[in-house]
Amino acid sequence: MATTRIGVVGGGAWGTALAKLLADKGFLLDLWVFESEVREQIEKNRENKIFLPDVKLPENIIPSNDIETVVKEKDLVLVVVPSHCMRDVAGQMKNFISPGTIIVTASKGIENKTHMIMTQILAEKIDFLPKENFAVLSGPSFAREVANNVPTVVAVASTSREISEYVQEIFSCPTFRVYVNDDPIGTQIGGAMKNVVAIAAGICDGMKMGLNPRAALITRGLAEMNRLGTKLGADPLTLAGLAGVGDLLLTCTGALSRNYTLGRQIGEGKKPDDIISEMRMVAEGVKTTRSVYNLSKKLGVDLPICNEVYFVLFEGCSVKETVEHLMNRSLKHELDGVLDSSFDRF
């Protein structure tokens, strides 16, 4: 297994942490990084000081700014780039990918224009690979904790059980347990939407509203994930698992979450544009909020929490107004729009 040829595309915090995980298992791997300074830092100091400082990286991670070197003749390519960069990066990769390569994405988001999830973009751009060769790794996992060997549990999903179990074996180790499921759609919708709800949870905490509203927000956020996810073909049980409720709980309550932190600062009175302009790392929930809002309108799915996050980020709505909007909505059954969509598939 250690002879498996692996390339990791994306040298942000999460890509670097997963590269370290694989290198610690004994894999020799190439890591594509966009910034020359990041490559130089890893080569000279074995540290990604910009995105994952104070973490020593093994010698068997070979950084490169050349995407051909990183993905050519590889058995497995892990893609961990911001979701809005996925289409461009996949296009750059296409000419160098071997016919049998397994491509795993650990990026979380929904494309703004097309409303595609990451495996769909990869499959469209790298169209000579069979669809089962694309898999997704997701779940409750902060990059820094994974890099520091904190016990972490995630899920990998593909339409092929054989591919999922292959990826499971590659990534699993004593501090990183990987489960498999057969639902790449639900796994990715959960991973994307939890970032939007995390912004709302951060706003709630920034306003010092208390624990009651945050618990309600997380619970109703899960209902919204279920509504949109099942409309797109997700299994509701996936959204009740690691890639759904697990990732949602972590991101809505953990200070290491960029999306939660962004929301908290908004709740404290800062303007969204000012916060975003100061962030070096991407808060995926911002772009995903636009995608989720537009997709929900297109499909006729009611997502009140996600809608209010959209109004705050893009329409200049005050956080006080969003709370009033949510609390004064018409009264209804708790499972309205959840039961119907969740059980259409049975």
Descriptive notes:
This protein folds into two domains: 134 residues, Rossmann fold (3-Layer(aba) Sandwich), CATH 3.40.50.720; 155 residues, N-(1-d-carboxylethyl)-l-norvaline Dehydrogenase, domain 2 (Orthogonal Bundle). It is of the alpha/beta class and 346 residues long. It has 17 helices and eight strands. Strands 3-2-1-4-5-6-7-8 form an eight-stranded mixed sheet, sandwiched between helices. Strand 1, helix 1 and strand 2 form a beta-alpha-beta unit. 51% of the residues lie in helices and 11% in strands. The longest helix has 23 residues. The protein is globular and about 60 Å long.
Features:
346 residues; alpha/beta; Rossmann fold; 2 domains; eight-stranded mixed sheet; 8 strands; 51% helix
Give a short overview.
The chain is α/β, with parallel strands linked by helices and 346 residues long. It has helices spanning 13-24, 36-45, 67-71, 86-93, 118-125, 143-147, 161-171, 184-206, 211-231, 236-239, 242-253, 258-267, 272-277, 284-299, 304-314, 319-327, 339-342, and strands spanning 6-9, 29-32, 61-64, 76-79, 102-105, 134-138, 152-157, 176-181.
Termini separation: 39 Å
> Which range does the strand content fall in?
5-15%
CATH superfamily of the largest domain, called what?
N-(1-d-carboxylethyl)-l-norvaline Dehydrogenase, domain 2
Tally of separate helices:
17
Unreliable runs: none
Q: What top-tier CATH class of the largest domain fits best?
A: Mainly Alpha
Molecular shape? globular
How many whole angstroms does the radius of gyration measure? Answer: 20 Å
What letter string, H or E per element, gives the SSE order? EHEHEHEHEHEHEHEHHHHHHHHHH
CATH topology of the largest domain: N-(1-d-carboxylethyl)-l-norvaline Dehydrogenase, domain 2
Count of spatially separate domains: 2
Percent of residues in helices comes to 40-55%
Number of strands: 8
Strand order of the largest sheet: 3-2-1-4-5-6-7-8
Task: Report the oligomer.
Answer: single chain
State the CATH architecture of the largest domain: Orthogonal Bundle
Mean pLDDT: 94
Q: How can the largest sheet be summarized?
A: 8 strands, mixed
Which structural class do the helices and strands define? alpha/beta
